[in-house]
Amino acid sequence: MTLKKVINTLILTSVISSQMLAQKESITEILLVGFDHLGQMDNGTPSSDIFSQKKQQEIIKITEKLKVFSPDLIMVEKEPSEQNQLDSLYSAYRNNYLKLSDIEYGASETYQVGFRLAKILDLKSVYGIDHYESTSQSLLNSGDNIKLFKNGLTELMNTARPLKKKVQQDSLSIYDYIKTINQDKFIDLSHNLIFNLPAYVINGEFSETGTNTVDIGEIDKKYIGAEYITLFYNRNLKIYSNILNTELKHNSNKILLIMGQLHIGVLKDLFEHNRNYKIIEISEYLN
Q1: Dist CA 78 CA 84 (whole Å)
Q2: How far apart are CA 253 and CA 226, in angstroms?
Q3: In sequence order, what are the residues at sequence separation of 6 or more whose Cβ sits closer than 8 angstroms to the Cβ of residue 133?
Q4: For FRET with 193, which of 10, 186, 227, 280 sits at 20 to 30 Å CA-CA?
Q5: Which CA distances in Å does 58 have to 6, 19, 52, 113, 121?
Q6: What are the helix and strand counts (H, E) for the chain?
Q7: Which pLDDT value is given to residue 9?
C-alpha cells in the first residue's frame, strides 16, 4: 500500500470513528408530563365534560405551552402493538376527517394533548410505548407494618382527590391541575407510595380480591411488600425499554412523553442515569 493510500485510509477511518462517536454521544432531551387520566374526569356533570368549551380551552393552553418545547417525537400511553390503529386514527384526525370527539375514549390525554400537539407540529404520528399490566393498590392489604403503606395511600388520596373534584366542578382548571401534580412534591408522594413504603411490609399475603394481571409465580410472603414493588417496577422497565427502542428507531432529538402521573417518578430515576438522555423540567413550560 502506498503512503498516499495509507494516509487516505487513516483519514477515512478517523472520519468514520468521529461520526460514530458523535452519534453515540448525542443527547436526546426528554420532557415527561404526568396526567391524571382526562378520560376518567367526567363524572356525569356538565362541568366535568372534557369536551365543554371551558375545558377545551384549558387543554389548548397546555398544548400551546408544550408546543414551545417543539418535540420531534411524541410518545403516549398505548402499546406498540396498537401502533397501526394509532396511525390510522391520527392520519384521519390530521387530515380533518375525524374529530377528537368522534374517537372512542377521545377525552384521553393521548388524543386531547398528544394528537392535538402532533398536528400543530406537523408530525407524522404519535407513538405508543406502554406495556399493559394491571396491579391494584388493594392487592397489598396485610402484613407487618401494613399501616405505613395504608397511611401513605390515605395521604395520596386526601391530596389528589380534592384537586380532581375541583377540576370536575370547574373551580380549578385542567392546566393548573396538571401543573400542580407534576411538581416534585407530588411526584415524590406517588412514587413513595408505590416504590418505597411497600418495602416495609413483611410477612403478609396478597389479597384474593385485588387486581393483578401478571403471572407472579412463587411469592416470598416474608417480603410481600417487595414482591408488590416488583410488579410495578417490572411494568415500568418494559415501558422504559419501549421508549429507548422507539427513540433508537426514529433517532429523536426531543421527546415528549405523556403518561399517567404514577409512572413519572420511576421513569425519571431511570433516565437520570442514562447518559444518552437529558431530562427537561416540566416547570420550564407549565409555569
Answers
A1: 11
A2: 36
A3: 213, 214, 231, 234, 235, 238
A4: 280
A5: 64, 44, 10, 11, 19
A6: 10, 5
A7: 47
How far apart are alpha carbons 117 and 96 in whole angstroms? 14
Instruction: Tell me how far apart the alpha carbons of residues 214 and 235 are, in angstroms, rounded to a whole number.
Output: 9
Q: What's the predicted TM-score (pTM) here?
A: 0.88
**Contact yes or no for 177/167 (Cβ under 8 A):** yes
Helix axes 184-195, 146-168, angle to 10 degrees: 140
Closest by Cα among 108, 115, 107 to 51 = 107
Res 6: pLDDT: 40
pLDDT number for residue 18: 42
Ranges of the chain whose pLDDT falls below 50: 1-7, 9-11, 13-24
Which residues are registered as beta bridge partners of 277? 28
How far is residue 264 from each of residues 46, 228, 270, 272, 287, measured CA to CA in Å?
30, 18, 10, 12, 18
**C-alpha to C-alpha distance for 110 and 160, rounded to whole angstroms:** 21
Phi, psi dihedral angles at 74 (to 5 degrees): -115, 125
What pLDDT score was predicted for residue 215?
80
Residue 5 is predicted with a pLDDT of: 47
Asked whether the beta carbons of 120 and 66 are under 8 A apart, the reply is no
**pLDDT value of position 10:** 46
Which residues have CB under 8 Å from 176's CB, separation 6+? none
Phi (first) and psi of residue 184, to 5 degrees: -55, -40
**Three cell numbers, residue 86:** 394509532
Angstrom distance (rounded) from CA 260 to CA 168: 18
pLDDT value for 210: 84
